[in-house]
Design a protein that fits this description.
This protein is an alpha/beta fold. Helices cover 31% and strands 18% of the residues. It is built from ten helices and 16 strands.
Length: 325
């Protein structure tokens, strides 16, 4: 991990989204950029193709920002907005993997810097998205409904093969169970699903464990990439196994958004997961074309990065409204 640096652009930004007119169901969600890079070495990580990390490979392993006072001032202003919103930590960097780094650089772990501010109000929510099991500092704080902890998990085989350096999915689920038992809201992302040999057995076992955790939502996603050729090249240079990309199609999806696994396989995997999930767990899809939602037979009731179906970001003209909200 590189020495800390000052961030010169805004800490809180909106995701660019798939673009106007796209059939992909996704929104310009709010994200907090508290660090850059990630200490884990997932083969499919899109950060590997980002120009900054292509030319600064050491930064890919992670770097925290030191002008955290500026970040907190931005956050206080964001929290003053009367429109309820969700803030995501972990889209462009792991949400919990930098806890110790923030403690050393900024005097407190990130959870201690952020959670009390959200706990002090009842309008907005915060979600930590992570593959880390670094829950020690979060467990020191009293739970609040305003803060959600969410783990990206996978089948154990997929995690062991293509998510090197990250805790195994079983360890992530154990951490999620600890937080859930302590009273924290928990969401999970089963993403990216990969159609490896005997994937039904692998994902079936993971979903059985997900059901035990009883998260408030499970968001499903399948392997996707913006530029598989570039990603394969950079994964190889970074010493990561690029074989996971072998299952992607040679053409982008119907929206022109991403290269994906074959449509029929996507639908089969999503239906398998939804049918195996307990009925009381709300399912959703991540960055998928509205055609996939419709073919799977899933109605839009919110997704991972939103407060729910009535989130202000769900505009009247969005594809979500075609899915019988």
């Amino acid at each position: 991990m590189l020495p800390p640096k000052k961030r010169t652009s805004e800490f809180i930004q909106q995701f660019a989204g798939p673009g106007n007119g796209s059939n992909v169901v996704c929104f310009k969600f709010w994200q907090l950029k508290h660090a850059m890079g990630c200490p884990f070495e997932c083969s499919y990580c899109f950060l590997q193709t980002t120009p900054y990390f292509v030319f600064n490979k050491d930064a890919l392993k992670g770097q925290v920002y030191s002008n955290i006072d500026v970040m907190l001032a931005e956050l206080d202003e964001w929290l003053a907005d009367p429109v309820p919103k969700m803030l995501l930590v972990g889209e462009l960097q792991d949400g919990l993997a930098f806890e110790e780094a923030h403690r050393k650089v900024n005097g407190a772990p990130l959870t201690h810097l952020l959670i009390p501010r959200f706990a002090a109000q009842s309008r907005h929510r915060l979600v930590f998205l992570t593959k880390s099991t670094a829950i020690r500092y979060a467990m020191e704080l009293p739970p609040t409904p305003q803060v959600v902890f969410s783990w990206s998990v996978n089948a154990e085989y997929a995690g062991a093969t293509w998510e090197k350096g990250a805790p195994l999915p079983s360890a992530r689920l154990a951490a999620a169970q600890c937080m859930r038992d302590a009273g924290w809201p928990v969401r999970l992302r089963l993403d990216p699903m990969v159609p490896f040999n005997q994937w039904q057995a692998g994902y079936g076992a993971t979903i059985d464990e997900i059901n035990k955790v009883r998260p408030e939502m499970v968001t499903l996603g399948a392997l996707r990439a913006t530029s598989p050729k570039s990603l394969r090249t950079n994964a190889t240079k970074n010493g990561r196994d690029p074989s996971v990309l072998d299952c992607l199609t040679e053409e982008r999806d119907s929206s022109g958004f991403k290269y994906r696994i074959p449509f029929e396989t996507q639908v089969e995997m999503f239906k398998f997961a939804i049918e195996r999930l307990d009925a009381e767990i709300a399912p959703a899809l991540c960055k998928e074309d509205s055609k996939v939602w419709q073919t799977v037979g899933l109605k839009f009731a919110g997704c991972h990065c939103l407060l729910g179906a009535q989130d202000a970001l769900v505009g009247a003209g969005s594809k979500a409204h075609e899915l019988e909200v």
